[in-house]
Design brief:
Oligomer: single chain
Structural class: alpha+beta
Largest sheet: 5 strands, antiparallel
CATH architecture of the largest domain: 2-Layer Sandwich
Shape: globular
Radius of gyration: 20 Å
Helix content: 25-40%
CATH class of the largest domain: Alpha Beta
CATH superfamily of the largest domain: ATP-grasp fold, B domain
Strand content: 25-35%
Number of strands: 16
Order of helices and strands: EHEEEEEHEHHEHEEHEEEEHEEHH
């Protein structure tokens, strides 16, 4: 197969592993810098150019679209879909998962366990927002934040109110969530491919930091997940419409709660913690599923 990898940085571990796994299985992988693609919107024959060459003849596309370029990245992916190329994750599903509010609304509607969450823009009455999620301590997040950036812990009522007002002064949309104390500064990342959790890891924040993101200095280790956690991860990915997803959960006293569903999960932490060839399993999934025009929306969403 001829596979396109939409990625800005070919040197990242995840991208090098995907290329390696594809080539080991006899496939031809092309890394395409998403922002250098030019879309031709001419009628009747959709087309794209990359570095002066037409992007034709691809059987599948793996979108590794950074959060900062979601709009343009999904536009390029949508054009691949219109051209009949099979996407590992569809453009509509990526847009859905990147919208933190929309994704939480969809998960809640389907009964997925979530932390109690409030969404706000006007923050003139921060006490009401904090009370809505059960009181301090609370986690306050910028709606557009990624990789743990824009996430703070309001440990007391006064501190939380001050932080909420500060974000309000920036005219930012915020999420305020209950703090799951029993999680102990750790979370679980489940790597879902299709209808299976193929690998998982426990992420632990660095000392003094409640955030467990590896980008913020956290560490990863092997973990055995429960059947309920496995089922929750698979259901969350399916609700988002993602073929491959990283589902982040916390262990609360009342069961697993989903924090986020990531459409471009990093592979380094989970592969090293679990010892599982996740990149290879992604390519195997493409081999089984890639067919021309096999998308739910054909770029129409």
């Amino acid at each position: 197969m001829k596979i396109a990898l939409l990625a800005r940085n070919p040197k990242l571990y995840s991208h090098k592993r995907l290329v390696q796994a594809a080539e080991e299985r006899g496939h031809e992988m092309h890394i395409i810098d998403t922002l250098k693609v030019v879309i031709n919107l001419a009628a009747h024959k959709p087309d794209m150019k990359y570095l002066g060459q037409n992007l034709v003849g691809f059987d599948a596309v793996i979108p590794r679209i950074g959060a900062s370029i979601t709009f343009y990245g999904t536009a390029v992916l949508r054009q691949f879909e219109v051209m009949g190329v099979y996407p590992l994750n569809e453009s509509v599903a990526i847009s859905r998962s990147r919208d933190k509010l929309r994704s939480l609304q969809l998960l809640a509607r389907k009964g997925i366990g979530l932390p109690i969450t409030a969404f706000a823009h006007t923050t003139t009455k921060p006490g009401e927002i904090i009370e809505m999620v059960g009181g301090a301590p609370v986690v306050i997040k910028l709606l557009e934040g990624t990789q743990g950036i824009g996430v703070v812990l309001g440990e007391t009522e006064a501190a939380a109110e001050s932080m909420i007002q500060a974000f309000g002064g920036l005219k930012a949309n915020i999420l305020v969530q209950e703090f799951i104390k029993e999680a102990g500064g750790t979370d679980i990342r489940c790597l879902v491919i299709g209808d299976k959790v193929v690998a998982s890891m426990k992420r632990t924040g660095k000392e003094g930091d409640f955030r467990s993101n590896l980008h913020q200095g956290g560490s990863a280790s092997m973990i055995k997940i429960t059947p309920e956690e496995r089922s929750t991860a698979v259901r969350a990915a399916k609700i988002m419409g993602l073929g491959v997803a990283g589902v982040d959960m916390l262990r609360a006293n009342h069961g697993p709660v989903v924090m986020e569903v990531n459409s471009s999960p990093g592979l380094e932490g989970v592969e090293k913690a679990s010892g599982i060839d996740v990149a290879g399993k992604i390519i195997e999934y493409i081999e089984k599923n890639a067919k021309p025009n096999k998308t739910k929306t054909r770029g129409k969403g």
